[in-house]
Write a structure and sequence with these properties.
This protein is α/β, with parallel strands linked by helices. It folds into 5 domains: 16-128, no CATH class; 133-210, 2-Layer Sandwich (Alpha-Beta Plaits), CATH 3.30.70; 219-369, Ribonuclease Inhibitor (Leucine-rich repeat, LRR (right-handed beta-alpha superhelix)), CATH 3.80.10.10; 392-556, Nuclear Transport Factor 2, Chain: A (Roll), CATH 3.10.450.50; 564-571 and 585-639, Helicase, Ruva Protein, domain 3. It contains 21 helices and 21 strands. Strands 14, 15, 16, 17, 18, 19, 20 and 21 form an 8-stranded mixed beta sheet that branches. The chain has a 7-stranded mixed beta sheet with strand order 7-8-9-10-11-12-13. Helix 1 crosses helix 2. The longest helix is centred in the first third of the chain and has 27 residues, at 102-128.
Length: 642
Amino acid sequence: MEFPMEPDVKLDATSYESNCIAESSAVNGLDDVPINQWQCEVGKMLRNHFALRLNGTCPLVGDDGSVFDSAVVTALNNKPDKPKISYMQLCKDRLMSKTIGPTKLAQLKCTISEKLKKLSHNTSAASNTATGWRKVTIHNAAEHEPASVMEEVKSLVGAKLIYHKLATEANHVTFHLEDDESVCKSLRDLSKRFSMPGSNTRHTITVDTTTSPGSALPPEDVDEIVKRVLASRYNPDLKKLDLSKFHSDQGFRSYNVVFVLCHASNLDTVANMIVKNIPEVEEIDLSNNKIMKLDTTARILRGCRNLHKLNLNNNRFYSLSDLRALRRHPYTDLYLENNKFSRRYKNADVYISEVRTYFPKLLVLDGKELPKPIGFEVDENDDVVPPFRPSFFCNDQAKQIVVMFLKQYYEVFDSKDRSPLAAAYCEDAIFSMTTLLPDSGPRAVPIDSKNIPNRNLRIRTRPDEQLELLLIGRSAVMKQINNLPPCTHDLHNFVVDVSIATARLIKVVLHGVYCRHNIRSKWANIRSFQRTLIIVPVGGGYCIANEQIYLCLPTYNQLQKSFKFESQLTAAAVPSSGPSTAEPIPQPSQLLMIEGFAEQSHMKPEYAKLCLEQNEWDFAKSAALFMKLKEEGKIPDNYYNH
């Protein structure tokens, strides 16, 4: 079996071992040598000369020189028409028992040699540029002025040499530069050939991989320099901030400072300065800064409400998920070219679709206007929640009937005697109740679980239970109405919806809250409810033919708004001066305050009420007065609960 390979075919994982083996034998002149001998030669070559990584995998070289690649096994096992194989089978079948003839070797020799050299060079270059910075040392050149040395070097290398942080170390001149392979090669070529004018000394030049250089200045001074550079790069007319190649700005180089935005702390510092000084910015260019993450920076930039255009070209974002933190800001214009993830998308439609999952309001991507997304034709503002409307009535006549009916109904329901409500129900009325209330905890009322027949179909799954809890007939309905705990409804916060009103029936859906009587807990005495009524004309009035009640805990907004109207009326009814002839009955919200104040102060409820009344029901003011009097010892002992 031979290993076919055309000269222009890309070297992939499957052909990797055969190419290395063929190259080894060709170099050593082994034309018809068995594979196991080539295997040893390849093993020596890889151990001594190469550290190759191909498609994310590394060739494995055994002590005996055996070579096999995990990528080959993975690739073959992923093909449905191939049987599952093991590493040992691969070595045996592909490497141990086959030979390649001299004719094929002659054809492969040139192509494989070039590909291996290129692969070796790319691997070496990739490892050297991992950090993106090089430190260049001109040995034994400190006797000359560093600036003069750099002028001479620049005249030989060319204008493309942009250096940072020029300094002297021991007897050497050092500087930093970014990863530009052509510039590095030119500097290496000058080694042992470079000399200063008027000097016979030839200097060695070394180029080493390093991390991004820092700054010797105090952080406060660096911040001032950053502010000046930001000011020089901001265009107030266009409201645009250009931060491209930020570290290369002459404002930094003149102070011998390297301020790289690929460091998260530096990027966050700049973002905070932007939000503080130019929050009106609409466009920011962050291209060519080797940025990999924007998590904290994205949160800071939300303070720029008008920011809609962001340029992130030529950075180091590995995947679109690295931009997840940006999606909460409504960017409409985005540039993402020449990042690692953008090179992986071969299909433009897939690329646009993926980006739009993070930025649904995007209009322009990489300078190109995006086509309108395929979907339903909806208005741009359709996702806006419609304004709250207190009540809805399909016609004015129905409104008059329903309002009068509910007013009369709840006047009786909230009284001590509910028996007159029998006239409000038909003889064959149907009634049911559903609750979603806690059985335990501070907001639970155990007696409610006993007295309320909960026909929640998620709980009552048996048909006989469901039928039993469906009350039919006026007497059964009134029995349950009378068993409901005494309460007061907040009539002024009712929300009534009447969607159907005909001559034969009216459908009413009523939302509201009520206050349970005789419940001390401020968390448990307010309940929310929804009642659905079908009322029909009977004689000269209307009766309830069908009713369903749903009870649950109130929302925070309902608690805040409940029973405020009555409190305002009570306060307005109290004269500004002169004694009151009758003590007003506290409203439910005031009862809550009395209970809370008595609990925190350990005073009896009647004295807690007195304190609140004297301070116009201001809880904070009452508490401050209580603490003052308590410290002065002016509160009698009989005011407290013992």
